[in-house]
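Figure caption, in words: inputs first, then the predicted bound structure.
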Amino acid sequence: MDVTPGSTAGHGAASITLERIGKRYPDGTEAVRELSLEVKAGELVVLIGPSGCGKSTVLRMINRLIEPTHGRILLGDDDVTRLDPVALRRRVGYVIQNVGLFPHQTVATNVATVPGLLGWSRERTRERVHELLELVGLDPAQFGRRYPHELSGGQRQRVGVARALAADPVVLLMDEPFSAVDPIVRTRLQEEFLRLQAEVRKTIVLVTHDLDEAVRLGDRIAVLSEGGRLEQYDTPAALLGSPASPFVREFVGADRGIRRLAVTPVTRDVLDPLPADGAAGLPTVPLGGSAYDALGALLTSATEHAVVTEEGRPVGVLSRARVLGLGVVD
Ligand SMILES: Nc1ncnc2c1ncn2[C@@H]1O[C@H](COP(=O)(O)OP(=O)(O)OP(=O)(O)O)[C@@H](O)[C@H]1O
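Bound structure (adenosine-5'-triphosphate present):
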């Protein structure tokens, strides 16, 4: 996947600031009472919390599919209520569960939706569609002419991401984007998505029910409770290691220590010196790799130690006890 500088990455990313926003629906439901949250430019923030706590409402207020009852939302320095809807659509991409592709339009036409709304020339649109399908790992010649029903769930999801990126938005909003596919495809899409994000560096707000997904994808995670109340806003490691309240502690679960291993890298300070008599027969794990993978290697080899390598050279050994220590939580 190749990204030409100045195309996909051209417009960069913008911060998102939610200032004491709230939403009361016409029937009186207070979906979000008062929420303040700041997402830095280029950051991927996950909103998570129990069903009905207001996650989708928050997301849809950012692109004004839902108007807030009170509060302010800024994209960079711009108040979204002051942007005209076309400009807002240009700047904010939106991906939803089951993608919402237009069934009677080809993949290429689907991806060209926003450029079409923006009046791009046919040539510019065609080039952009080609570039985006390649970016999400779909061969334009093979997939551009297909219809959504001729794709797998995972392929449809990628088309949804390509469509959302079409006009090079500064912000991407994703509502349960990977939940409609089976767990194996989901994990693969998540990995691909992280690679894509490393290239395009958008500001992303992603809603999920899945804690593992939140931990895997989020630079930071916002845990919400009923009424859109912000319980904790932290990195995955901090959230799992030090839940701020009984609510968060229960939400992240009794196995949070194991989950924490997955987001904790093996660093030099947990290593012991290489034994003088060599390290033959020990498994090797990379410095900077996850503690979870290191534990996996230790369990598979049934040894007490693993050799830790940097650029192929051994730099120390890691004991089982040290790995387990990395998973200890408050
Ligand atoms: N149009 C509406 N009119 C009235 N109440 C609504 C409307 N849309 C959502 N709600 C209510 O607002 C609350 C928050 O809904 P929202 O969809 O934002 O929650 P959520 O956290 O995304 O839920 P889920 O995880 O189940 O998708 C819920 O109590 C829901 O019933």
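The chain has 14 helices and 13 strands.
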